[in-house]
Specification:
Elements (H helix, E strand, L loop, with lengths): L1 H10 L1 H18 L18 H13 L6 E7 L6 H15 L4 E6 H4 L11 E8 L5 H15 L1 E3 L2 E6 L1 H35 L2 H25 L9 H29 L4 H28 L7 H32 L20 H11 L1 H16 L7 E2 L11 H12 L8 E5 L9 H11 L5 E6 L2 E4 L2 E4 L14 E7 L6 H12 L7 E3 L1 H35 L3 H26 L4 H4 L7 E2 L1 H32 L2 H30 L5 H33 L8 H10 L27
Parallel strand pairs: 6-13
Antiparallel strand pairs: 1-3, 1-5, 2-3, 4-5, 7-11, 7-12, 8-9, 8-11, 9-10
Helix pairs in contact: 1-10, 1-11, 2-8, 2-11, 7-8, 7-9, 7-21, 8-9, 8-11, 9-10, 9-11, 9-21, 10-11, 10-17, 10-20, 12-21, 12-22, 13-18, 13-22, 16-17, 17-18, 17-20, 18-20, 18-22, 20-21, 20-22, 21-22
């Protein structure tokens, strides 16, 4: 298959390159504006109880959680006559803005919790209709920000709330994306020059990277016409597009130069490169795509968006490396080394530093494997204490205005109206007929730990007592066939205490069927959706990856070992991330605020990406080891030679990819910083410590068992396996028999 493809690329190289140029221009024109059509949300499960509660609350009662908050400061006090008049006018004007469904404030509701403890600040709560396009919503929110931020008579007004927070997050990410590209691309080019030693060879991976990024932008642009796509997917597209294109191109170009150095003609070198490195790249891309495709099982479109972007960028990068790049190499030929700036002295085969390292490890495989495993487990130990949450305003930089508003509300106000828990009973019966039941239920709810006050049709309740009679605003709790109640929390909504509050409310006995919604309920439901589907996602990755590795290598032990090593290295990475981002170590150096939890979605995303990338390097190394083993039949020599042939390239690829990810660690958004730093650590750890020590040690211990499979599976592999079947210089040993023991003693 790959041999035929290579021959075609050599014959039709000019036509392939012309189509590639056209294919590069089209995504640039159509997909360049994709950011305008992407969304900043996607953290909720659309079928969850909290979402259904919100939908019923809006449809049946005309109520919705406020997503726009004005923090109003009155130096003379919020009850000063001038402040009262200005506050009422401000609330009325906001309510008349296009798209605002309701607006209420301390002054219109006469609700003490909407005033600060020192009576110098008050809140205006409003709902901006989000059942419109992202573009229309952003325009309306921008108009509010422009019209209401600043001084208004005796009042100073600052805009906050969920809508503004997400808008600020999206804007910050777009700025971070530009900065990350400005940092990573020049550094990457310099490193490529150092790795390849020539200008032409160094520019090839960047060209494939541009193709991968623009091609994925086009894919995302098309997808926005059918489904919601998160704006955060742009970070993955840029980072993974550039990183994988460099990875894949490194292996293709390096193998091509290696074949030319052996004296092959340019066409023969291209054919052999595609048959070996091209096949490995295609297979590696498949393993990465499978890991990312597992994100499709989650109902949150934030995670699903990364599957869309990841699969797209892997596909385009692989096409660029396996099809476009070989055609370009067929045209360039020996000119691939043109404008050489570095010349390195060739080393004799079997004398390189990676060969020596592999042999040193294989002389003491047990002690080295044990020591490295212990270190990785120690690094992973903090993950045992992980706590998960969802992003809030504190993911923004400390000097961000929207975060400043939220911080003042947390500090200066005792009430939690903006984050109240909604208890919706849509079919309880006419509200006027169930007042006794409402009173009893509200009284009970007010005794739940973490509840500050319960507001209902029949009044307000606290600590098991009615503390206020119904007022003119109480009518909002009545519907034609039901009612709802609002439980104002005394705990932080986005916290473990907030989650427990929701569980306690859901566990409380109700006189009618209820649905519980609100910020804390959304957190509980999102975590449930993620962790409920996590075993399925991990299982799919493990099973499909195991099968694909078997089809490529014809072994049972190699896939099992690869899965175990990947989990081991990722455990160390996640432990480090808990130590840094949850526990707050290095928060000053990295400039972020720790809130004692990790974002629930980011570790899942990191797992799928890092698992795929780790398997990527595993495949590159194992394919070369297998090639040498098929040629010589010597397990020890094959492992040492495989590491020698790929060690430099894998390390260079990992360093380049780490640079890309570390550029994203400069982001002002905490979970993007976590994403970049965590993946950079995962790549470096896997490509160096794991590949240089654990892989050769375990393969030395297993001996010929590395390539063993039962006879039925061996027959299956010979029929449908992914081997090219080109014939080798030396016969392979019979692997259908029992595993052979190691050739020499080990310690």
């Amino acid at each position: 298959m790959f041999g035929s493809l290579a021959s075609f690329l050599v014959r039709r190289r000019v036509a392939v390159l012309v189509l590639a140029v056209i294919g590069l221009a089209l995504p640039g024109i159509i997909g360049g504006g994709v950011a305008e059509n992407l969304s900043a949300g996607g953290f909720e499960n659309p079928s969850s109880e909290s979402v259904r509660a919100a939908e019923i609350l809006e449809a049946d009662f005309g109520q919705a959680d406020p997503n726009v908050i004005l923090l109003v400061t009155a130096q003379e006090g919020v009850d000063d006559p001038d402040a009262v008049e200005a506050g009422l006018t401000l609330t009325q004007e906001l309510g008349q803005e296009e798209g605002i469904q309701f607006a209420a404030s301390y002054w219109t509701l006469q609700a003490p919790p909407l005033a600060s403890t020192d009576q110098t600040q008050a809140l205006v709560l409003a709902r901006l209709d989000d059942n419109v396009t992202e573009e229309v919503f952003d325009q309306r929110l921008g108009a509010i920000a422009e019209g209401y931020n600043g001084s208004r008579g005796p009042l100073d007004v600052a805009l906050g709330g969920q809508a503004e927070t997400f808008a600020q997050v999206g804007g910050t990410i777009e700025e971070d994306l530009v900065r990350a590209e400005a940092i990573s691309i020049p550094i990457t080019l310099v490193l490529l020059l150092f790795v390849f030693g020539s200008v032409v060879a160094a520019l090839l991976p960047l060209a494939v990277g541009v193709l991968a990024i623009l091609g994925t932008f086009l894919i995302l642009q098309i997808l926005t016409g059918f489904t919601d796509v998160s704006i955060f997917a742009l970070n993955l597209t840029t980072a993974l597009g550039l990183g994988l294109a460099i990875d894949y191109s490194l292996f293709i170009v390096s193998r091509f130069r290696e074949e030319l150095a052996l004296g092959k003609s340019v066409p023969d070198a291209v054919v052999r490169t595609v048959q070996t490195a091209g096949k490995t790249v295609a297979f590696s891309a498949g393993t990465v795509a499978i890991s990312l495709a597992a994100l499709m099982v989650f109902p949150l479109y934030f995670l699903r968006s990364f599957a869309y972007a990841g699969i797209g960028v892997v596909f385009v990068a692989a096409v660029g490396a396996v099809i476009v790049l070989p055609a370009l190499l067929a045209v360039l030929g020996h000119r691939v080394d043109k404008f050489r700036i570095l010349r390195r002295r060739a080393t004799a085969e079997g004398t390189g530093r990676w060969h020596r390292l592999a042999m040193a490890v294989m002389r003491r495989p047990i002690s080295i494997a044990t020591a490295v495993t212990v270190v990785l487990l120690v690094l992973g130990a903090p993950f045992l204490g992980v706590e998960f949450g969802l992003p809030d305003d504190r993911v923004l930089p400390q000097d961000n205005p929207a975060r400043g508003v939220a911080e003042q509300i947390r500090t200066n106000f005792t009430g939690g109206e903006a984050a109240a828990v909604s208890i919706v009973a849509p079919s309880a019966g006419a509200a006027s007929d169930i007042t006794r039941e409402i009173t009893a239920y509200a009284t009970e709810l007010s005794t739940v730990e973490g509840v500050s006050r319960v507001d209902a049709l029949t009044g307000s309740y606290a600590q098991g007592q009615q503390v206020a009679d119904p007022n003119p605003t109480s009518g909002r709790f009545a519907g034609n066939q039901g009612t709802w109640l609002s439980a104002v929390p005394s705990v932080e909504p986005n916290s473990l205490e907030g989650e427990q509050l929701v569980r306690d409310i859901r566990a409380a006995e109700a006189p009618f069927e209820v649905l519980v919604g609100g910020t804390s309920a959304g957190l509980v439901d999102s975590k449930s959706a993620i962790f409920g589907r996590l075993p399925l996602a991990v299982g799919l990755i493990a099973v499909v990856t195991f099968v694909l590795l078997f089809l490529m290598f014809g072994s049972l032990l190699v896939p099992a070992k690869a899965l175990v090593l990947n989990i081991l290295s990722l455990t160390a990475v996640f432990g480090a991330m808990v130590w840094v981002f949850q526990d707050g170590n290095l928060s000053g150096v990295l400039d972020f605020t720790s809130i004692g939890v990790l974002d629930t979605t980011t570790p899942i995303l990191m797992f799928c990406i890092a698992f795929g990338l780790s398997m990527d390097y595993e495949v590159f190394l194992l394919s070369r080891i297998k090639e040498e083993h098929d040629r010589t039949g010597d397990n020890v020599a094959a492992v040492a030679m495989g590491l020698e042939k790929t060690g430099k390239i894998v390390t260079a690829a990992a360093a380049l990819l780490a640079v890309v990810f570390l550029a994203f660690a400069t982001s002002g958004i905490t979970f993007i910083k976590l994403f970049g730093l965590g993946l950079a650590l995962a790549v470096i750890l896997d490509a160096t410590i794991v590949r240089a020590t654990l892989v050769p040690a375990l393969m030395r211990l297993a001996g010929e068992a590395n390539w063993w499979a039962p006879r039925p599976l061996r027959s299956l592999y010979e029929r449908v396996g992914l081997s090219e079947g080109e014939g080798q210089a030396a016969p392979t040993p019979d692997r259908s028999a029992s595993p052979a023991k190691g050739e020499v003693s080990v310690s």
